[in-house]
Amino acid sequence: MSSRSGDAGLFTSSDHGLHWQKVPGSPSGATRLMLSDHDLFVGTGKGIYLI
Hints:
By secondary structure, the chain is mainly beta. It contains no helices and six strands. The chain has strands at 2-6, 9-13, 21-22, 32-36, 39-44, 47-50. The chain is globular and about 30 Å long.
């Protein structure tokens, strides 16, 4: 599985990037991603979010 972030939110792909779907509830403006066990933390200019 692949993931990308950006101004529109966090996106994931299960087919090596051929198709992308927005992760529900993901914040816009993501600048940092951190995976800890099964928790994904998303950093933006406004704060840190747990997805």
